[in-house]
Design goal:
This protein is mainly alpha-helical. The protein contains nine helices and two strands; from the N terminus they run H-H-H-E-E-H-H-H-H-H-H. The chain folds into two domains: 7-77, Winged helix-like DNA-binding domain superfamily/Winged helix DNA-binding domain (Arc Repressor Mutant, subunit A), CATH 1.10.10.10; 82-209, Four Helix Bundle (Hemerythrin (Met), subunit A) (Up-down Bundle), CATH 1.20.120. The protein has helices at residues 7-28, 40-47, 51-64, 82-103, 109-128, 131-149, 152-174, 179-193, 197-209; strands at 67-70, 74-77. A two-stranded antiparallel ribbon has the order 1-2. A hairpin with a 3-residue loop joins strand 1 (67-70) and strand 2 (74-77). The termini are far apart.
């Protein structure tokens, strides 16, 4: 049979996505600091790839607000811009409100137990001061309603805008008031088990709308 024409494209897409994720994570975890210049040749050598997927990844990172690209001049890691953060935060909060509202009637006992397990892992990570593990557990918990809701548009919007919030999220999880996030998780799961879609959606949105730029403390009340 003829060789499928779509196979090479799939490989390129996987490489492109992998390069994007690795550069995104390096910005989020502080490997590349705000204001640092990113040169595609150096990044390609570091990742062991050609410049093409690196350039494509930098364009995606620019659309997410993690880098500032100046064609023909330079690409630098963006600063934590309070306005950009507020805008992304409000969009992400609205998407989680929608996802949780749609998901609550569909959540199974297995889903709820998985959320509880993620909440326990998050609490343990916070107590241990392990910010990386806290982020992973938080993602797992909030990702379950998003997956169960099955709203592709919501998932796409979250994929675009959530990365911009990661640095502020890490600051909050490293701060003493990360305990507030533990309490929100417990309340979210309680409301999901009670099938209170409106209440659970409000708590989920509040978890994100309370996120503030450059500080661990939550200045806004829980929505």
């Amino acid at each position: 049979m003829p060789v499928p024409t779509h196979a090479p494209a799939t490989g390129r897409r996987l490489l492109r996505d992998d390069v994007y994720r690795r550069l995104r994570d390096a910005i989020i975890d502080g490997t590349f600091e705000p204001g640092e210049q990113l040169r595609d040749g150096e990044l390609a050598a570091w990742l062991g790839v050609s410049r093409t997927p690196v350039r494509e990844a930098l364009l995606r990172l620019a659309s997410s607000g993690l880098v500032v690209a100046r064609p023909g001049r330079s690409t630098v890691v963006s600063e934590l811009d309070p306005r950009a953060l507020r805008e992304a935060r409000d969009v992400v909060a609205a998407m989680h409100r929608l996802a949780v509202g749609e998901a609550v009637p569909l959540l199974t006992d297995a889903d709820l137990n998985a959320m509880s397990d993620a909440a326990r892992r998050f609490a343990a990570a916070v107590e241990a001061g392990d910010v990386d593990a806290a982020v992973v557990a938080d993602d797992a918990l909030h990702g379950i309603p998003v997956e169960v809701a099955g709203n592709r548009a919501v998932a796409d919007v979250l994929e675009q805008y959530t990365p911009l919030l990661r640095r502020a999220e890490r600051l909050r999880f490293a701060a003493p008031d990360a305990q507030e996030s533990i309490a929100r998780h417990d309340e979210l799961i309680r409301l999901c088990r009670a099938r209170d879609a409106v209440g659970a959606a409000a708590v989920a949105a509040g978890s994100w709308s309370s996120l503030q730029p450059g500080a661990g403390r939550s200045a806004e009340p829980l929505a």
